[in-house]
Design brief:
This protein has 236 residues and is an alpha+beta fold. The chain has one domain: Fumarylacetoacetase-like, C-terminal domain (Fumarylacetoacetate hydrolase, domain 2, Alpha-Beta Complex), CATH 3.90.850. 15% of the residues lie in helices and 33% in strands. It is built from 5 helices and 18 strands. A hairpin with a 5-residue loop joins strand 17 and strand 18. The longest helix is centred in the last third of the chain and has 11 residues. It binds manganese (II) ion (MN). Manganese (II) ion binds next to loops. The site of manganese (II) ion has 7 residues, from loops.
Length: 236
């Protein structure tokens, strides 16, 4: 059926998409999966020790704030929080779907990588944790997922040894190495695809290292992962 002949009760939302470096075609986004506590030192600062199986939460695709290369993204200071945290993360973009993907096959499902920020209303997340309630209000709110453009995987030979860092107003807050992931990219895809059938267009926010902290209105965050375009985001 041709789109113009289809009738909707209101205009459908636009397709969310992310630019890909070096080509005109954009990456259409399906879902955003996020991994919790996937760096040891961050797990510790959150009050946990030991290797636990990876666990996941989701953000809606329209929580993305897509920031083109060289530009500064703008996010509003969100409602209902007094403790708005940055979490710098390597984002894995899935190009080929599947379920029960083995770690040994996982890399063939990866389209590329980007820098992302899993912005968190930490006070609300902590309240929900204490009450055993879902994290959605702390994690899956509007504008909670700024990310930069995607670099295709074949252009990044050494993503597993990349440095990952974020500074706020020029001062380094989080600084680590992707090699310190508790569950590496392949293992994360293996676990994730056992629970959900991955689809092309899925994004995986792979977890944040230690040093999560608050930002306030007027702050500028600059996130970097070796080999990827810098992600700059201003809090309005
Ligand atoms: Mn996170």
């Amino acid at each position: 059926m041709k789109e113009e002949s289809m009738n909707f009760v209101f205009a459908p939302p636009p397709i969310i998409s992310v630019p890909v470096i070096g080509q005109p075609e954009r990456f259409p986004v399906h879902r955003i999966y996020c991994v919790g506590r996937n760096y040891e030192e961050h797990a510790k600062e959150m009050g946990y020790t030991g290797r636990e199986p990876p666990f996941f939460f989701l953000k809606p695709a329209d929580a993305l704030v897509v920031v083109p290369e060289g530009e500064t993204g703008q996010i509003p200071y969100p409602s209902m929080t007094g403790n708005f945290h940055h979490e710098i993360e390597l984002v894995v973009a899935i190009g080929k779907g599947g379920k029960n993907i083995s770690a040994s096959q996982a890399m063939s499902h990866v389209y590329g990588y980007a820098v992302g920020l899993d912005m968190t209303r930490r006070d609300l997340q902590n309240d929900m944790k204490k009450q055993g309630r879902p994290w959605c209000i702390g994690k899956a709110f509007d504008h909670s997922a700024p990310m930069g453009p995607i670099v295709r995987a074949e252009k990044l030979a050494q993503i597993e040894s990349a440095a990952i860092a974020v500074s706020v107003n020029g001062k380094v807050r989080q600084s680590s190495q992707v090699s310190k992931l508790i569950w590496n990219i392949s293992e994360t895809i293996e676990h994730l695809s056992a629970a959900w059938e991955l689809q092309p267009g899925d994004l995986i926010f792979s977890g944040t290292p230690e040093g999560v902290a608050a930002v306030v209105s007027g702050d500028t965050m600059v996130g970097d992962v070796t080999g990827l375009p810098t992600l700059t985001v201003h809090v309005n």
